[in-house]
Amino acid sequence: MYKLDKFSDMDIVTLEELEEDDEEPAKIKWKKMKRWQKVLLSILMVAVFIGIGGSATFFVLRAKGGKSLKVEVKQEKADESGSDKGFFIVHKGKEYRYREDIINILCIGVDKEISMEEKEAEAGRLGLADVIVLVSIDTDKNALKMFAISRDTMTDVQMAHRDGTLAEKKEMQLTYQYAYGVDTAQSGKLMMDTVSELMYRLPVHKYCAINFQALPVLNDAVGGVDITLAEDMTWWRDGYIAGTSLHLDGQTALEYLRERTGEDGGSNQGRMRRQKEYVMAYLAKAKSVLASDLSIPVTVYQQLQEHMSTNVTLDEVTYLVSELLNISVNADELQSLPGESRAGEKHEEFYVDREALKELIIQNFYEEVPNTRDKV
């Protein structure tokens, strides 16, 4: 475990504290909920009551959500300097411009089973980011790409005092960044900023974080997921050999995505491969189910309130789901950041190949700016 003795006089939470479990989870009561949560829940209940699927309400929300997402992308560029926010990149003597039709959403699986908001009064108590995937939706080309980021990626993590004010940065695994927020909103923002910096200041527009209790809900909402084991997993369960077909219900899906063997230093990389396989199978199943029942996302959104933290609004969810139905997704569109795993002092460490990463980012998010300086 890393020690932060260098900053001990700053009253910063230690990594040991980040991994402590709570034995007495408290329930969130209506009166303690934030105003935006109450408003959102009210909207959701009304939407479900009137039957959003197949009604005019769906198309109203879809239009509003699409507009707000696109306006936010353009507003972000207008409010910040282009070079600082990553709207322009210079590489090998050429200038590249960010493609504004791409919306980037950071999806985070948090290593906790209690509600997302618990312990929000203290920094370093909200759990660790166990699964990190950047989802990119190209609304111009109707394309979706996903970039899996190892939880063990070594990067500059923004630490914070217990009151939420920012402190120093320290190189450690990316998984720890989520824990340093004083509440889930700050944790989400810190993750967005850190991933943006890791990926050459790539704009990250939204985030959605869920705990492990959310996965069974998502899995069962589409009737479970069928997969074929790509690797031997008899170290977990007898009979789980490569080529075995499995139907994953909620709890089994959760265990399947969390388990990893400690026999080798690349155990998390193996788990990430299973997660990729699952995500592709889930998306295929979800598309077929959503095509016949557009109310599912709203119902699930309501069910996940205690197990989710996000700055994606209901109308934006409606828009994004409708976009998904028009997108063809294949396994090649889910990539992992380039790099290699190494055995750390106590934990696995993943080091990104910076040059290869820059090439990947330019290829997927940018377009070359024509050189007009020599033209009249």
Secondary structure elements and their pairing?
Elements (H helix, E strand, L loop, with lengths): L14 H4 L16 H16 L5 H24 L2 H4 L2 E4 L2 E5 L3 E9 L18 E10 L4 E7 L4 E7 L5 E8 L10 H15 L7 E6 L2 H8 L3 E4 L16 E4 L1 H9 L8 H24 L5 H8 L4 E3 L3 H11 L9 E3 L2 E5 L4 E5 L1 H12 E3 L8
Parallel strand pairs: 3-8, 5-12
Antiparallel strand pairs: 1-2, 2-15, 3-4, 4-5, 6-7, 8-11, 9-10, 13-14
Question: Which key features would you list for this structure?
Answer:
three-stranded antiparallel beta sheet, 22% strand, 376 residues, alpha+beta, disordered N terminus, 11 helices
Structure write-up:
- This protein has 376 residues and is an alpha+beta fold.
- It has a domain at 213-292: LCP protein (Aminopeptidase).
- It has 11 helices and 15 strands.
- The protein has helices spanning 15-18, 35-50, 56-79, 82-85, 184-198, 214-221, 250-258, 267-290, 296-303, 314-324, 354-365; strands spanning 88-91, 94-98, 102-110, 129-138, 143-149, 154-160, 166-173, 206-211, 225-228, 245-248, 308-310, 334-336, 339-343, 348-352, 366-368.
- The strands form 5 sheets. The chain has a 6-stranded mixed sheet, sandwiched between helices. It has a 3-stranded antiparallel sheet with strand order 1-2-15.
- A hairpin with a 2-residue loop joins β1 and β2 (94-98).
- α2 (35-50) packs antiparallel against α9 (296-303), α3 (56-79) packs across α10 (314-324) and α6 packs across α7 (250-258).
- It is globular, with a radius of gyration of 21 Å.
- The chain starts with 14 loop residues before the first helix and ends in an 8-residue tail after the last strand.
- 32% of the residues are buried.
- Mean pLDDT is 76; it is low at 1-11, 21-28, 45-61, 78-84 and 372-376.
